[in-house]
Amino acid sequence: MTERIAILISGRGTNMEAIFDRIASGDLDASVAFVASDSPAAAGLNKASSRGIPAHVLPYDRGKAEGERDLLSLCRENAVTWIVLAGFMRILSPDFVSRFLHRIVNIHPALLPAFRGAHAIEDAWKAGVRLTGVTVHLVDSGTDTGPILAQRAVPVHDDDTPETLEERIHGTEHDLYWNTLRGLFSGGLKPLSR
Fold first, then answer.
1. Which of 14, 45, 89, 145 has CA atoms 20 to 30 A from the CA of 38?
2. Are 66 and 118 a contacting pair, CB within 8 Å?
3. Going residue by residue through the chain (194 aa), what tens digit of pLDDT does each one get?
4. Active-site residue set
5. pTM of the model
6. How crowded is the C-beta side of 36, counted as CA atoms within 13 Å?
7. Contacts from 58-64 at CB under 8 Å and sequence distance 24+?
8. Rounded CA gap, 30 and 37, in Å?
């Protein structure tokens, strides 16, 4: 069965585009029901629209409850089976998560449980670690605490800058995310941790 996914973004939507490309190539058996953002300025909304994918702005400017109410309605109207967070910078409420328990996936630019939160790359850089990476996990009611599905390490090189490190992490995200989604949607991938 082809999974119907909603992709949530807050910015450029580079992970979203990588997923679009893998769906278009047939590597990932899914269809994108819609893309939604908490920000009307998110560049990814135009990228989705240019591919003929419905793009919505969630009314987070009227509060989290309003934003999530609209999101829930969109998911129901479009028979969404999975929610894919691709740079969505809002924390979903426990009530919303409970409605899609083990059906919301997130990608995080660090090797969880290290460097949770919105500034993971910057935090890893400031901590001086020699190894960081990317984690794909299911979303629970905590912040970056859900069951881990996949991780890939990214070494920090001596000549790195925060920008070059971020670029390599994003490249790793673009490959790891779709591969993990493919395993998850096929039923062959189980969480590494709980």
1. 145
2. no
3. 899 999 999 999 999 999 999 999 999 999 999 999 999 999 999 999 999 999 999 999 999 999 999 999 999 999 999 999 999 999 999 999 999 999 999 999 999 999 999 999 999 999 999 999 999 999 999 999 999 999 999 999 999 999 999 999 999 999 999 999 999 999 888 777 54
4. 108
5. 0.95
6. 24
7. 60/90, 64/90, 64/93
8. 20
